[in-house]
Amino acid sequence: MPDELSDIELLRAHVGGQRHAFAEILRRHNDHLWQTALRTSYTREDAADSLQDALLSAHRTAGSFRAEAEVRSWLHAIVVNACLDRIRRNKTRRAISLSPETMPEPVDDRDEFAELEMSLVVDRALFSLPPDQRTALVAIDLEGYSVADAAAMLGVPEGTIKSRCARARQRLQERLEFLRDPGNRK
Q1: Is 70 helix (H, G, I), strand (E, B) or coil?
Q2: pTM for the predicted model, two decimal places
Q3: Residues 10, 24: contact at Cβ < 8 Å?
């Protein structure tokens, strides 16, 4: 039966208290009203909010409809006005979209998991070195000993410490080269 009624008759039925009359009007015009809201608003979120505001307003003020225009035109005007009101409100109170596409990833200056992972990668590379190269490199680069002190501690000539460190650094560079790719680090 609602399919046989015109929009104006459905609106009058809604004002008269018929429960599903307004829903039928919305079913008929929902696509047009949504497209109107999308074209008038800056974001999809604003369009959805404006359309909801407009439909609530139309539902409440249906009794004031004067039938000077088509129901579709009346609804169209209410949607456009709701969108313009939201745009004006947003100019004074800037809102940001919370959609996943626009939300930046949370920034944590100290990413403990990344530090742990990097430590494990470097340790694995370090322990893949021959023991004599690893001990020389650890003494010089990690513990901060001088070449002379490291040579005395390890009981080898200073030149041996220098050559072991040079070979160890070369091997580490080869094993950790993949970290130079920006996609593999922060």
Answers
A1: coil
A2: 0.50
A3: yes
